[in-house]
Structures are given as structure tokens and as C-alpha cells.
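[agent] plan:
  1. take the single chain provided in the ticket
  2. run structure prediction with default settings
  3. attach C-alpha cells to the ticket
  4. add a short note for the reviewer (M.T.)
[agent] executing step 1
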Amino acid sequence: MLRTFLIVGVGSFLGGGCRFLLSKVVQNTIEYSFPLGTMIVNILGCFMIGVFYGTFERGGLMNTELKMFLTVGFCGGFTTFSTFMNENFQLMKDGNFFYVSLYVTISLIGGLAALYIGHLITKLI
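[agent] step 2 finished; step 3 output follows
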């Protein structure tokens, strides 16, 4: 149990660090009041978890500890629902209802599509 806890913790640490870096690079490169960095991170995270679970289903390619590290740890730390909700709240407070609608729609549909595509790719390889 302690070993798995540490494995997930290290994955979460790395995923959170990567999320911070990628979202800052995107936000600093493209100046919008729209939270593009978090949206890209969340959709990319959905794609990655689709690839990981598709790989696990192929059988014998990854052990349980690696699965926990990549999905619960890394992807759990990389993607963030609380930041997503807070950014939508801030957009609503500022009266940017178009951006709220756009952000929610693209994030949900794009995230689900990315997960599906990631999973599908592993099935085709």
C-alpha cells in the first residue's frame, strides 16, 4: 500500500508540474482572456489516459504499478477539474457567457473525443 501511495504521489507531482509548465507556455504565447492553457491540458490529458487504458487492455504491456503511476498519478496530477470550474466561474463573474459556453462545450466534447481517439489508436496499432 505504501509503495503504491508513493508511486501515485510521484506521478501526481510530475503531472502537476507538467500541467503548470504547459498551461503557462500556452497562456504566455497566446494572450486571451479565454483559459486556453487549461483546456489544452485537460484535452491532452484525456487523450493520454485513452492511450494508457487502451495499452493496458492489450494485456501484459504494462504492470499494475505503471498503470497507477500513469493514470491515477500522472494524468490525475496533469488534468484539473477544480481549475476548470474556477476559470468558468471567473468568466461568469466577468460576464463572459460566450466564453463560458465555448470553454465548457469544447472541453467536454474535445476531452471525450480525445480519450476515444487515444484509446482507438492503441487498438489499431
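[agent] step 4 note for reviewer: The mean pLDDT is 91.
[agent] ticket updated
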